[in-house]
Amino acid sequence: MQSYRKTLILIERLFFVGVMFGIGFGFSFLVLVMGSGIVDWINALTSKEVDFIGSVGGAVTTILAALVGVLAAFSQIRKQFEHKVIHTAWENFQQHLFNFSSALIDYSSVIQWLNYFVTSQNNPLVNAGNITKHRTDKWDEINNQHNKVITAYFNLLSSFESYEIIFMSLRKMKSEFNEVTSHVLLNKHKDLIDDIFPEFIGQPQTKTIDQQVQLINHFWRETTVISAYLDDFRTELQNETLGVILDKHIPGRRPKVKCKILTKDGLILFKPNKWFKTIRRLKHELTSRLRVV
What is the pTM of this model? Predict the structure, then answer.
């Protein structure tokens, strides 16, 4: 989007330069062809003819100036309209992105609390003497929160598709984000819930508490990865919308450890610079020594 806008601006400027150059070139060519005949013709003009030609020249100059002004005004109006459309698209998508981010945080917290649930559910003080109801209530809580995060996510995708013409450069980013997020929030969510609450699908419990805890922690880490990708999406969104209007750019995420980051070109493996690792290690060693002292 930003390169497209710069190309349009360049075309407009070249057009104005071309018009002025054409006028100057035409006058120079006329003088070159007519030669001294023009001088003789000018000397032969009467005062009335000179006044008339001056009036015509002034009128032509005024018309040309007005034409250039109108073209510049239309260019400015088109630019303002373009900025308004871009800002509207950013505002709409940003709101849905914030809603999904909030719902994802709440959902991730519920998942993390499953650790406490599976390790304490048999305690009568926790289950109030009714473990079946206790498990049903937790199952309902997770499903309700899952429905909220899925609804927020579908609204986010719908917002993107509504303004896809503005976000053309982010289509690959959105596609890979959708692939990862859908797999975690739909497929892996179902697998986790079936493992923790097998009675709701008519199956016996086959996982030990330790195995359930491992499954919960692994799934929770995957939700945090989605949150990181969401931040990547937010950064690129600003660069392709507000960045176009303000002609500014926000640098992408640079993790301290090797991991994947989401870019306009899709998922890439980011490896921190060796010098960065060395500086971080030396800083840690210096901090440790100062604490000892």
Answer: 0.71
